[in-house]
Amino acid sequence: MSKICQITGKKAMIGNNVSHSKRRTKRTFDVNLFTKKFYYVEEDCWISLNISASGLRYINKVGLDAALKNAVAQGYCDWKEIRVIG
Fold first, then answer.
1. pTM metric for this prediction
2. Residue 80 buriedness (CB in 10 A; 0-12 / 13-18 / 19+)
3. Residue 1 has pLDDT above 70, yes or no
4. How far apart are the C-alpha atoms of 60 and 62, rounded to whole Å?
5. pLDDT, tens digit, 9 for 90 and up, residues 33-80
6. How many of the other CB atoms lie within 10 Å of CB of 68?
7. β-strand 33-40 against 24-29: which pairing, if any?
């Protein structure tokens, strides 16, 4: 499972840990990502998405169907990548 949100396209960033003596070492800033099940009313099925917290807020704002259509149009996910649970 790659660490990319299927709705917003967010992925891990690379930055530095900075110690008190200002020494810098590389680190990654991971996305707040989790797997969530949604009931997709238009297709009458359950789907599973790898989604970030901001993606969940976006779905609550515009709706699941509009969020999926926008994510496919932006290229963040494909209809083949969305797992249908049953």
1. 0.83
2. exposed
3. no
4. 6
5. 999 999 999 889 999 999 999 999 999 999 999 999 999 999 999 988
6. 22
7. unpaired
The alpha carbon of residue 28 and the mean position of all alpha carbons in its chain are separated, in whole angstroms, by 17
Residue range 79-84: average pLDDT?
87
Q: Which of 73, 74, 51 is nearest to 1 (CA)?
A: 51
| DSSP state string for the chain | --SB-TTT--B-EEEEEE-TT--EEEEEE---EEEEEEEETTTTEEEEEEEEHHHHHHHHHH-HHHHHHHHHHHTS--TTTSEE--
**The two three-digit tokens of residue 46, written as one number:** 């359950």
